[in-house]
Amino acid sequence: MFSLSVPLGKFVRRVSRLRGGGSAFPGLVVEKIDPGFMQRALSTLPHGVAVVSGTNGKTTTTKMVVELLESQGLKVFTNRTGSNFTRGVAAALIGDVDWRGRLDADIAVLELDEAHAVHFVNRVPPRYSLLLNVLRDQLDRFGEIDKTAQLLQHIASKTTGAVVLNREDPRVARIAGTLQGPEVLYFGLDDSLLGTFPSDDELRAGPGSPVPSVPQRPEADVVLRRVGADDADFEYDGVTVTTGMKLRGVYNIFNAAAALALARSICGGGAATADHGTLLKALSEVAPAFGRGESLTVDGLPLDLVLVKNPSGFRLGLKSFPSGGYATMIAINDNYADGRDMSWLWDVDFDSLRADGVDQVSGSRAYDMALRLQYDEVQIGSVDTDIPAALADFIRTGKGKPKRVFCTYTAMLAIRRELSKITTVEVVS
Amino acid sequence: MTPESTAGTTASKGTIRVLQLYPREMNIYGDWGNALVLQQRLKWHGYTPELLEYNVGDEFPEGVDIILGGGGQDSGQLVIQDDLQSRAGLLKGMAEDGTPMLLICGLYQLFGRFFKTRSGPVIPGIGVLDIETHGTDERLIGNVKVTTPEFGEVLGYENHSGQTTLGPGVAPLGTVAKGTGNNSSDGQEGARYRNIVASYLHGSLLPKNPAIADFLIRTAVERKYGTFTPGEADDRYAVLAREHAARRPR
Question: Cis omega (within 30 of 0) on the bond before A284?
Fold first, then answer.
């Protein structure tokens, strides 16, 4: 069985690629005929497995960790396709192992969806885990936010080496107290930046409500001290360093601190073994993952895609990408991957769009979005649930202006598909 | 307590004080939308909204015309429990007196007689509504369409594992046409008692169901000023959002 499962998986992978099929299907086949395959392939890696999980920013953070480790000369296996389920990992492995099922890599860095990570870590205990945040995202899938925190706690409890936690997310930081085995490290924010990351519990703490006090926080391994227009300050080992950043958006740069903390831990921490010059250079060159603050060119002007999945993310997106001078479109779908519940739109303030208005609203829930904007007194150009038609109209009427599209996950896929007909869009396979 | 009043552009027909109950703990599923909709529609109808908050330990404000209660996590319900009990008499008096209230999900449950958790302990409610709730393993999640005698078709989104049964002292808000509602057996959703509208539906509820918003406003204004003369409400997007929402899968 063992000798056959890998060739068979590779064959299925090739056939399903020819068919243009889903990226996870070959993984499903191998898992069915050889359930021990993934565990065996991953158990031989000298630096083991690192799992990245949390509600927001998994894809970009994983990309950063991979590039940081590669800068230190490590050979890294990762699930690049964004297929962040166990079966997706198996599918990615099938592509990378040799015909005997061996993986030529030093470490695997895997982005895992919270719910699926639980099944994964039960079978493959990771040496490292990086837990980013627990936000109100797709609550219709997981039930409650506390439940999501429990999923992350489970990942941490199965980790054998080091767990890297977000010091500023109370639901994540709290996990430290439940752990006995692994070493615990934190990434954190300067006090001056705390206000830009409202936690879900504070979302409606409006004017007049007391500012939540800053409790005694543990020492963090890496702290994001300042975010500039195209650079940022990080502090570690008692020194503050400034580095250029290609990434945009405060939340992406906070996740850079997370990636840095994990990479330092893997490379031997401290100044001992990691070469910080090359680490920072690699960090400054990381480009956003697709749709995460990605900038395309249309009619010679930038068109930015900003993925929005939950109220905190949407708020941060609006804050990080001010609307002045831009034509703005918002596309909200309610497919399974987006979350079916539209309640979250009511926890985002759209006041910042009032001055310039929104040119185009689209997606299967375009009218929910339009209704939301109406109650925040934001002017709307037009509303069309059909994304290709709305996008064409947006590009036509917004001629001569840089453009920005805030979109949910499946709306972003649809928009990229349309844009690939008129501009260069990075192919993600 | 946070007054966020905004005066209308023309002479105001009066001031209506809207109180959000425990917005700090019970706000998790976008129920802020209900407060925002009341605030804006009061303005559209020519009244001055005054938005107040009541959180654990606050002094209870005077002259409240409408009460809003939202949903929360189980942990949030535990935090407010004692404070809510200490206000039981006051809230019961206001309810009996006819104060319009909108109670969603978590506070709908806690305004009832009790919530028996799945693991055993019974959380006492404040007994304003003749309902009881039992925690289950089953989470009821998805789009909901309810047929109601007073407000026509009501649209929203449910996400709860407590199952509620109505006693003879209250009427259901309506009958479920899509989704589950109060519990997985009797096909009823929400509760109506005096001027209380209680429901499991988020979405938020009021934006896509302006008939309920206007019921709360009309009732509050009539109680305070005798008569209600509506203004111009632009419900173009609400009508279309309802049409599209009604067609979406569960």
Answer: no
In sequence order, the 6+-apart residues with CB closer than 8 A to the CB of B89 are: none
Burial class (CB in 10 A: 0-12, 13-18, 19+), B244: middle
A106: closest CA of chain B, how far (Å) = 42
Structure tokens at A227: 């975010």
Choice between B229 and A25, residue whose per-residue pLDDT is larger:
B229
ipTM comes to: 0.94
CB A311 within 8 A of CB B29: no
Per DSSP, A399 falls in state: T
The whole-angstrom distance between residue A381's C-alpha and the CA centroid of its chain comes to 31
Q: How far is CA B105 from CA A357, B39, B74, B98, B117, in A?
A: 34, 21, 11, 21, 15
Give B41-97 pLDDT, tens digit per residue.
Answer: 999 999 999 999 999 999 999 999 999 998 877 777 788 999 999 999 999 999 999
Q: Which residues of B touch A342 (CB under 8 A)?
A: 30, 157, 203, 245
Give the CA distances from residue A297 to residues A305, A362, A418, A424, in Å, rounded to whole numbers and listed in that order: 11, 21, 13, 8
The residue of A147, A348, A375, A376 whose CB has the most chain B CBs within 10 angstroms, and thus the best one to mutate to test that interface, is A375
Q: What percent of chain A has a predicted confidence (pLDDT) above 90? A: 47
Please list every residue in chain B whose beta carbon sits closer than 8 Å to the beta carbon of residue A201.
24-25
Q: Which residue of A has its CA nearest to B160?
A: A143
Residue B30 and residue A343: Cβ atoms within 8 Å?
A: yes
Cα torsion for B58, B63, B66, B69, to the nearest 10°?
10
The domain limits of chain B are: 15-247
Token pair for A119: 């099944």
Q: How many residues does chain A have?
A: 429
Mean pLDDT of the A193-219 span: 59
What does the block give as tokens for B173? 């808000």
Q: Are strands B114-116 and B122-124 parallel, antiparallel or unpaired?
A: antiparallel
CATH 3.40.50.620 describes domain A292-420? no
Q: What would be the CATH architecture of the domain defined by B15-247? A: 3-Layer(aba) Sandwich (3.40)
What is the tens place of the pLDDT at every residue in A26-39? 666 666 667 777 88
Query: Which of chain B's residues have a Cβ under 8 Å away from the Cβ of A139?
Result: 28-29, 159
Which CATH number among 3.60.21.10, 3.40.1190.10, 3.30.870.10, 3.40.630.10 corresponds to the domain A4-285? 3.40.1190.10
Measured at the alpha carbon of residue B87, what is the angle toward residues A343 and B54, in degrees to the nearest 5? 45
Residues 6+ apart with CB under 8 A from B131: B108, B109, B111, B112, B113, B164, B165, B166, B167, B170, B191, B198
